Amino acid sequence: MNESKFISWLGRIASVIAILMYVSYIAQIINNLHGNYGAPLQPFVAGVNCSLWSIYAYFKKDRDWPVFWANFPGVFFSFATFLTCFPW
């Protein structure tokens, strides 16, 4: 396998793993909604991080789609988790 093909596959696999990492917030969101509140700092910082990486990947001259798609779901899942950490 040549280096270009390897990097392409590595980007896809890393993107899927990153998306799964943020989808795993669903369990914490459910716990938060049932009154078992988690700490809000980590999901907030993750949301900011994902936002910055998504903006970077989208607006650079040659868009970096694996980085964008790996972080874009994290924007929503992280901030949803953060917002549900409080007993509004």
From TrEMBL:
Superkingdom, according to UniProt?
Bacteria
UniProtKB keywords: Membrane, Transmembrane, Transmembrane helix
Q: What is this protein called?
A: Small membrane protein
Could you list the residue ranges that cross the membrane? 6-27, 39-59, 65-86
This chain's source organism reads Limosilactobacillus frumenti DSM 13145
> Which Gene Ontology cellular-component terms appear in the entry?
membrane
Entry keyword annotation includes Transmembrane helix: yes
